[in-house]
Amino acid sequence: LTVMSATMFHIVVPTISLDFGLSYGQVSWVSTLYMLTYAIGSVIYGKLTGICKIKNLLTFGLFCFAFGSMVGLAAQAFWMVLLGRFLQAVGASVVPAMAMIVPVRYFPPEKRGGALGIVSTGLYLGAALGPVVSALFVNAVHWRWLFCWPFLTLLTLPFYRKYLHDEPNGGRVDWLGGGLLALAAALFLLAVTNGTWELSAGGFLSLVLFILRIRFAEEPFLPPRLFQNKRYALGLALSFFAYGIGYSFPFLSPILLFNVYHLEPGMVGFALVPAFVVSAILGRTGGKLADAKGNSFLFYIASVLLFFCFVLLSSFAGILLSFIIVFLTFGNVGQSFMLVALSNTISRTLPKDQTGVGMGMLSMFHFIAGTVFAGVY
Fold this sequence. Notes:
The protein is mainly alpha-helical and 377 residues long. The protein is built from 18 helices and no strands. It has helices at 2-7, 13-20, 24-27, 29-48, 54-73, 78-92, 94-106, 109-138, 157-163, 175-194, 197-216, 225-228, 230-246, 248-259, 265-293, 295-316, 321-347, 355-376.
């Protein structure tokens, strides 16, 4: 549902632009602000899992998600729409952090792949359903009603409150360090989006100040030893590039279908559904393969599927559309397997007291990779 909320507004940008008399660039902040806050929030919630109970963080996040939806539903001006999206993202960003942390904290290593596979299923179902549900919904009612979907997440709260039993480790949050990290991430993301060196310079300065802060703070936001863990740092870098490469599917595929096959925007969403649905169905299978055969085995399968997909797409773009849909299915399944293999591997490099912030950083790196590689593409 949080992934759906991130993607549902993509196809109503022209309608919002007409309603408020704004340019596409201005209206694009409806999605940009959500994704920016979503990325930064995931690492902050990851840090908070060491201090607060997970079920309390989820309760706060999902209520904030719903409150942002109420603001958006009542919006009579564009700034209220943006405020609603910001509040939605503040709440929704608890989900990518917990989606990584819960499998690590509640499942032993030999069963963790299956749990991460189920997480992958939710991710791909959200990606598949978001544009389709949005297209069907706006044909029947006003686009503001897209804000109502997050209310469904409140139905899950009783289960989280019942089954998530954990005690926080105590301590406090270095909000100055967290703020510097958030500022650095935001400036770098905006620099890539807008192509301005001034923002890049600001991001670099914020990063330097953050590094100095964590070296000298009594309880730093990120412990320096996290990045001295070479296996974790290597896994983070590999995951960054793997996610960025896989981001070509949601970013470039619609352009291919629109420019080469001349599909209407609504039909583009329907054409991508098979690939996402098959990825969702096979997500748990990939996790079980990782548990039974090892993460390396799943990584090799994912690499072969991705390579096969890219060769076919680059060689035969323009042929019968049904073949392109099949090629994209290979690639999306490969990307699903790749994320399960890497997430599972990275989780095993972290000591228990660093799993929250370590997996939160992994989530944030995924969003940064998507933004950077979108600029490259």
